[in-house]
Amino acid sequence: MASHQLDLLENALDSLTEALCKYEEGERGEHKAYKFAVLHMAHFVELIFKYHVAEKHPLLIYKDPFSQKLDRTKTITLWDAVNFINNESADTLNKSFRADLEWLKRLRNEIEHHKFSMDVPEVRTTIGRLFRSLMEFINDYTEIDIESSIPERTIATFTVLSDQYAFQLYEAIREAEEIEEANRANYSSGDMTVVRLECPSCGNPTLVINNQSSTGFKCTFCGNEESDDIPATCDICGVDSTVGELDYWETDDDRIESRCYYCSGRYHADKDD
Ligand SMILES: [Zn+2]
Ligand SMILES: [Zn+2]
Questions:
Q1: Ion ligand 2: protein residues whose beta carbon lies under 5 Å
Q2: To which H or E segment does residue 240 belong?
């Protein structure tokens, strides 16, 4: 490998490490850090694409490789590289990947011109998606072994970002935690309302209160709205219980009535046995 390519690759990996570190800072509540995560990420993408082009021929990294006197100070841009990859094969970079690259380009411009207004959820999800698209590109079209070059301290974030399932679960747990946090005031005021449960459908701690749900709860990961542990009260005596503990009866006027152990008559039935 020519030294220029080695430099590109090394710089690319440095940018990736920086992007991961800044992303982690953002996750810890340092929201300004996402801005730098975007910039480092953009640099990482650019260097990986340039590296890919340089692999075809080292001179292709220069703006005009066919000129009589090669100007080594002028190298191609990210979009030159993107066009090259696209001209090589139209389906290497799919539509959504290209859309995310456009997003990255716009954001990078805004940051550089101080017009950047942060939409944190959008930044987080788009960085995640972009990262996975890029990892796919790296695995399918290059020989680069990224995983083994990632410093230990950023491996966890790297894994979450590169794995669709892990990323979505992480996002869902985070959302559930935020909902729990936002409703914690109810605890201190003495109202011990349950706001977060383990979801029986997907097994994650992501079943949280949701006023759009008919049960009052919805899982932020799988969308399930049901659990035997959802708080409920007996319609007859008003005792606090859970959905699973109550019996449900259809009344004469077609309503569903919940009844506790005593009010349902089960207590008496069990006693008589
Ligand atoms: Zn679930
Ligand atoms: Zn009752």
A1: 234, 236-237, 260, 263
A2: strand 240-242
Give me the amino acid identity at 235: D
Q: What is the 251 CA–ligand 1 centroid distance (Å)?
A: 31
Furthest CA-CA distance within the chain: 104
Write out the two tokens for 38: 């975007």
Q: Is 209 helix (H, G, I), strand (E, B) or coil?
A: strand
Q: Which ligand is nearest to the Cα of residue 204, counting in written order?
A: 1
Distance 187 CA to ligand 2 centre (A): 25
Q: How far is the CA of 173 from the centre of ligand 1 (A)?
A: 10
C-alpha 157 to ligand 1 mean position (Å): 23
Ramachandran area for residue 77 (φ above 0: left; ψ -120 to 50: alpha; else beta): beta
Q: How far away, in angstroms, is 200 Cα from ligand 1 center?
A: 7
Ligand 2: centre distance to CA 268 (Å) = 13
pTM reported for the whole predicted model? 0.72
Ligand 2 centre distance from Cα of residue 259 (Å)? 5
- 3 state DSSP class of 161: helix
| Tens digits of pLDDT across the chain (273 residues) | 567 777 889 999 999 999 999 999 998 889 889 999 999 999 999 999 999 999 999 999 999 999 999 999 999 999 999 999 999 988 888 888 888 899 888 888 888 888 777 788 888 888 888 898 899 899 999 888 888 888 888 888 888 888 888 888 999 999 999 999 988 766 555 556 789 999 999 999 999 999 999 999 999 999 999 999 999 999 999 999 999 999 998 888 888 899 999 998 888 888 776
